[in-house]
Amino acid sequence: MFIRYQVKREKSPFQQVWDEVFTPVWFKLLKGPQDIFIQRTAKIFSARYERWEYNALVARYRGMGIMADDAMNDKDMIVERALDIIPEDIRIQRYRRMMRGAVLAGRKLHLLLELQNYDPMVPYMAPYIEEAKFQMQEEQELLAFHPWDRRLYVSGLIASLGRLWNRGVLRELERNSNQEVITSNQPSLITYGYSDS
C-alpha cells in the first residue's frame, strides 16, 4: 500500500509548458521587480515624508520662536529634574521663548523673518537631562526611592524627594507629642501634633 505523498506523479503537458515557459516570465518580469519596485518606492516616499515632517517641524519652531527642547513636556520626571538643575539664565531664556511662542500662537502670528534665522534643533538641555538621569539612578540605588513615589500637583512647599514640608513638620510634632505622652503616662488626644494633656 502506497501513501499518496510518496508517489511521484507525472506532470501533465499543460503543467510542463506552464513551468517551463510562463513561470520564469512571471517571476522575471512581474513578481520580482514588482516587489523590489514597491520596496524602493516605499523607502523613497517614507524618506521624503520624514524629511518633509522634519522641515515642517523646524518651520513651526522657527515661526513660534522656540527651540525643540522648549517643547518637551515639563511634567516628565526627567525633564522636571533637568529643569531643577539647569542654570538660572538658561531657565529664564527658555521661559521667555515659551511665553513668546504662546503669545504668537494665541494671536495667530509668526515671528519676523529676520528673527527666524536660527537652528531650533540644538539640544541645549541634553547635558542637564543626562545629569538628571544620573541623579535619579543614584537615588534609586542608594535611597530606594523611585520618582514614581513622589507626589504630584500638591499645595505647599515640596522638600527633596517629593516630601511635603508641612506634613514632615506635623509628623515631627506627632513624634514629639507621643514621646511626651509615653513619658508622662497620661491619656491624651493627639491631633496633628498637639497633645491634649
Give an overview in words.
The protein has helices spanning about 15-65, 75-85, 90-105, 125-145, 165-185, and strands at about 190, 195. It has about 200 residues and is mainly alpha-helical. The protein has a two-stranded antiparallel ribbon. The protein starts with 12 loop residues before the first helix and ends with a strand. The model is unreliable at about 160-165 and about 180-195 (pLDDT under 50). One of its GO terms (cellular component) is mitochondrial inner membrane. Keywords: Electron transport, Membrane, Mitochondrion, Mitochondrion inner membrane, Respiratory chain, Transport. It is found in: Mitochondrion inner membrane.
What are the SSEs and their pairings?
Elements: H1 13-64, H2 77-85, H3 88-106, H4 126-143, H5 165-184, E1 190-191, E2 194-195
Antiparallel strand pairs: 1-2
Helix pairs in contact: 2-4
